[in-house]
Amino acid sequence: MKKKLIFIFIIIALLITYIFLLSKNYVMAVSSDLSNSVLRLHIIANSDSQQDQDLKLKVRDNIVKYMNTLTKDISDKQSVISLVNNNIDEFKKIALNTIHENGYDYAVNIKLGNFFFPTKDYGNISFPSGNYDALKIEIGDAIGQNWWCVLFPPLCLVGSSSGVLPNDSKEILEDSLNSEEYKLISEGKSNLNDNSNIQIKFKLIEWFNQFNKD
User: Under DSSP, is residue 130 helix (H, G, I), strand (E, B) or coil?
Assistant: First the structure.
């Protein structure tokens, strides 16, 4: 009887390990594809005062406008990253000019890199938490609330924090992901459809990525 219980325990342990490894490999594959498909924007305000938060949004709008002009004819991420990297000084200049035009003298720290993002919604698209390439802009002391959005495909909505996203932006995303991955970001957090399988997978990605922060 004892040997039988040990055998059952071993089988259960192996099954759990197998399921864990399958889940981890799935999460790594999906997270990698999502990360490779987008370039995100992260702006940190000087403080949480209303003035500094308003200034953050003005910086955002001018950065996004320039980005949209710079990349309007480009549809692949690596070319976008190359353009952003080559124009990093211009991005900093735009941020500084916006700050000065609004009567502040905050410094700006700007860098292009790979950073951890929490789960965020952009209109009707939701990206699970994980590490993503991003343009990060820190204003002044950079201790205020963050602004997060997606520079490429252009999901940042100037002057707004929500809304229906442009179809051409969603098409770029859809073309760069497989059908299940696109369903994950477009339906994974939806309460409007009964797609529990997709929702469970979305939660699984969130759960695993919380333990893989850089």
Answer: strand
Distance separating alpha carbons of residues 136 and 76, to the nearest angstrom: 20
Q: Give the residue carrying structure tokens 């099954």.
A: 15
Q: Is residue 79 part of a domain?
A: yes
Instruction: With respect to residue 6, please indicate whether it lies within any of the assigned structural domains.
Output: no
Which amino acid, one-letter code, is at 115? F
Which residue segment(s) compose the domain that 105 sits in? 31-209
In whole angstroms, give the CA distance from residue 123 to residue 193: 17
Residue 176 in tokens: 């760069």
H helical segments located in the chain: 2-37, 50-70, 77-86, 88-101, 167-176, 179-187, 196-209
Alpha-carbon distances, residue 65 vs 48, 51, 68, 70, 158 (angstroms): 24, 21, 5, 9, 8
Using a 10 angstrom Cβ sphere, with 0-12 exposed, 13-18 middle and 19 or more buried, the burial of residue 173 is buried
Secondary structure letter of residue 162 according to DSSP: -
Of the candidates 140, 185, 179, 206, the residue with the CA atom closest to the CA atom of residue 34: 185
Q: Is the whole-model pTM more than 0.90?
A: no
**CB contact at 8 A, 152 and 73:** no
| Residue at 11 is within a domain | no
- Of 45, 214, 191, the C-alpha closest to 121 is 191
pLDDT tens digits for 141-152? 999 998 888 888
Provide the domain count of the chain.
1
In a domain, 19, yes or no: no
Confidence bin at 189 (pLDDT 50/70/90): low
